[in-house]
């Protein structure tokens, strides 16, 4: 099993950028990547942001936040949009060399979101790289059962791990 994760200590923007750059580089090198990358758009004059995830390699870009008109103190997840993105990523797994999941979050910790997609990738022996929020690290470690390796939040380290994992898969 080839399973890696990157921990986001204070917010996810930095890890999102790293995962996005890593995926772009791997795709440019001809590696078939599926999964999701997150981006946030700040709203002018508003405390909340709009969260989007792009399904790799070529979209769509799906808004996964809801506007609750001041009823929430942070971005509020639209679970149906997240499940739609998970379904699209799952449908592309058969042709993928690598699965990238932008975040193992509350939804995954409770058994939803991208958990089934990751389980499917494991059954296909497809390497996985996941961003993990520090708040959900314990749930992630329980889910991965010690099989995942923590990687430095660095594009070069992630690209190297992905290529090494793919080389081992192709040798088997």
Notes on the structure:
The protein is α/β, with parallel strands linked by helices and 172 residues long. The chain has six helices and nine strands. The protein has helices spanning 13-28, 79-91, 106-109, 115-123, 137-144, 155-171; strands at 3-8, 33-42, 49-56, 61-63, 65-66, 76-77, 98-104, 128-133, 149-150. A seven-stranded mixed beta sheet has the order 4-3-2-7-8-1-9, with helices on both faces. It has a two-stranded antiparallel sheet with strand order 5-6. Strand 3 and strand 4 (61-63) form a beta hairpin. Helix 1 (13-28) crosses helix 6 (155-171) and helix 2 packs parallel to helix 4 (115-123). The longest helix has 17 residues, at 155-171. The protein is globular, with a radius of gyration of 15 Å. The two termini are 12 Å apart. The mean pLDDT is 87.
């Amino acid at each position: 099993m080839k399973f890696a994760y990157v921990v986001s200590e204070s917010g996810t923007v930095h890890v999102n950028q790293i995962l996005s750059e890593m995926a772009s580089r791997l795709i440019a090198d001809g590696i078939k990547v599926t999964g999701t990358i997150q981006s946030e758009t700040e709203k002018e004059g508003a405390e909340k942001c709009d969260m989007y995830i792009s399904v790799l390699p070529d979209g769509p870009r799906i808004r996964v936040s809801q506007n609750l008109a001041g009823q929430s103190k942070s971005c509020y997840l639209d679970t149906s949009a997240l499940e739609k993105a998970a379904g699209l990523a799952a449908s592309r797994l058969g042709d993928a060399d690598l699965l990238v999941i932008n975040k193992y979050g509350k939804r995954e910790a409770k058994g939803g979101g991208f958990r089934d997609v990751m389980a499917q990738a494991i059954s296909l022996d497809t390497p996985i790289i996941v961003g993990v929020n520090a708040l959900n690290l314990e749930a992630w470690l329980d889910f991965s059962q010690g099989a995942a390796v923590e990687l430095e939040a660095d594009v070069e380290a992630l690209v190297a791990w992905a290529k090494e994992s793919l080389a081992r898969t192709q040798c088997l």
